[in-house]
Amino acid sequence: MEQLLLYDQEFKRPLCACAADHNLPATLSANGVCLKKIVTVLEPFEELTRKISSATSTGADVIPAVTVLTRLLAEENSTDSGIKTMKSTLLQAVSRRFSSIESEPLYAVATLVDARYKDRFFVGEETARSAKALLTQELEQMEQALLRASADEAGATEAEPVEKVARMEAGTSSDSPPSTSKSMLSSLYDRILEEHDEPAGGSQAAVIQMQMYLKEPTMGEKDSPFQYWANNHARFPLLAAVAEKFLSAPSTSVESERLFSTASNIVDEKRNRLTAERAEILIFLKKNLPMFK
């Protein structure tokens, strides 16, 4: 009998008290639940919940969390006696709820640009290829946007000098050679051509960046992807811009709900005359001062 009653002694007293309150048997039967094993199965759920609910969690944490949890529940070992049905039910629930998570562009691209995960946590090759195709599209769009911004900036910078030269040309004699004006215009013309010639090889440049990045080893689980991109922005400028876009999204709404709770604790009946600016300062200090302790 004692071999079947595998519940931990720390649960014995509260279980006996609960049994007495509800007129239940004081001891577990031979078919009772093995509480130690249940705790072991549910511990990863708690750990992952805390991880994706943290202030530093991003959308990149979702796919790896689902992959790890699915593999953990799918593993079979000799200690599963009594909880096989439970693990099977949990596995089915996880698979049903997150069956299409790898097809979501936000989660897929965010996972790829997180140097801790990259393409290592996608379950199938097809979903990994689809995620890389999405990332390639984002890189090409980012490259086009950067080129347009660069062209606009160059045009704004050169517009004024060219106009001044044109006025100077109008004030000179007709026999003076227009070599200076022609040289500046030719230089600007060539520069614009060079800027617009780059997109032809832009997709290739984006693919090369992505391949180089994915071939490198991943970071440790505890390392910061934000610090990685701060250090490698110059090496992978397009990827860094995409990472800045996708890693800014949190994985859950928990942190925003915490922020609302913090605001409700600061702006209450006794402090109802706080200005919006003061309240924002206090909320910022409340959220960020613990980081520096």
List the helices and strands and how they pair.
Layout: H1 12-21, H2 35-52, H3 62-74, H4 84-97, H5 105-112, H6 125-171, H7 179-197, H8 202-215, H9 225-232, H10 237-246, H11 254-266, H12 276-288
Helix pairs in contact: 2-3, 3-4, 5-6, 6-7, 6-8, 6-10, 9-10, 11-12
Kindly summarize this structure in a few lines.
The chain is an all-alpha fold and 293 residues long.
Which class do the helix and strand fractions yield?
mainly alpha
Global morphology: flat
Quote the beta fraction: under 5%
Radius of gyration from the CA trace?
A: 30 Å
Distance between the termini: 52 Å
Tally of contiguous helical segments: 12
Largest sheet: none
The overall average pLDDT, rounded, is 78
Report on the structure:
With 293 residues, the chain is mainly α. The chain has helices at residues 12-21, 35-52, 62-74, 84-97, 105-112, 125-171, 179-197, 202-215, 225-232, 237-246, 254-266, 276-288. It is flat, with a radius of gyration of 30 Å. Mean pLDDT is 78; it is low at 1-7, 172-182 and 188-202.
Keywords, please?
64% helix; flat; disordered N terminus
